[in-house]
Amino acid sequence: MPELPEVETVVRGLRVSLPGRIVGEVRFGKTDFVDNPDEIAEHLPGLRISDVTRRGKFIFIGLESNASGAPDATPPAPTSLGYLIVHLGMTGKLTVIHSADSVSPHTHVFFVLDDGHELRYTDVRRFGRMLFLPESRLAEFTRPLGKEPLEISADEFCQRLGSRRARVKALLLDQKVLGGVGNIYADESLFRARLHPARIAENLTTKQLLALHGAIRRVLEEAIRSRGSSISDYVDSEGKRGNFQLRHRVYQRDGKPCFRCKAIIRRVIVAGRSSHFCPRCQPPPRKPRKLRKNSKPQIHTDKHG
DNA sequence: AGCTCTTCCTGAAAGC
DNA sequence: TGCTTTCAGGAAGAGC
Length: 305
Known about the structure:
The chain is of the alpha+beta class. The chain has 2 domains: 4-69 and 77-142, Alpha-Beta Barrel (N-terminal domain of MutM-like DNA repair proteins); 154-277, Helicase, Ruva Protein, domain 3. Helices cover 23% and strands 22% of the residues. The chain has a 4-stranded antiparallel beta sheet, with helices on one face. It has a 4-stranded antiparallel beta sheet with strand order 2-3-4-8. Strands 9-10 form a two-stranded antiparallel ribbon. The longest helix is centred in the last third of the chain and has 20 residues, at 206-225. The chain is elongated. Mean pLDDT is 87; it is low at 289-305. The structure holds a DNA duplex.
């Protein structure tokens, strides 16, 4: 499943071949995962791809006017007209291949390019999403998105999570809090920070939050260097698999011994997701005492000093 | 505010 | 062998 490192790997690959290309015909198979297929088919042909960027798990393919049409006059500066935005969901793939190459099953969108290639979107389960976003609505689209995990400062990370009463894993998965962390990297980060996924964020010490902030950074950076994790059938824009799955410490290792302490890795459901952890390295939160009618309200000591 | 449940979809794996 | 059932999961929405 593509998370930040996989999406980043795809984006870096697309960045090699897409910028400068002019979009030609757009063809669709199924469109139930596309917000505005008619707009895409109508507006994209003739536009030039300016760049490819990432926000969280979203891929932004920048589109500008093709200013090279007039042979005589000085071409006007290209203006950004908007973005083709793609979320790969669980099984989405974006690949650039020759138009003559065979079409893999479940390929639902074809963007013909001006150099004999096509940008194709393939998605078995169609949990992905695609839309054309005009420049004028960029802010509206990005406003609710969470901070980039590789850019958020330690201070802001501690503030964002430390004030929340939810389980820490639920917050890591919440794309309005952090953009790009999914189930794999949430589990791997929590293991490295030695925090149980069901810990309540508010109850973590500043030291623990800082450890988590650092763990997320290290895990994501290491995974990007490994070109992502290939669980099931993830491949990048050139069809190549990643390698980070070989370095997972807990994800999908339930029943196997912890690399650090040899305890058996366990799997539980937290925040509706399979969560893998070492019961010794990541001790569970203390069972909250059953509240009695006349029990005093619990006072948390201020951990921020 | 935050939890659980449901929905979307398909293929893999388990069950019979 | 072959059919049926179950499960997985990112995100959004409903209901509690």
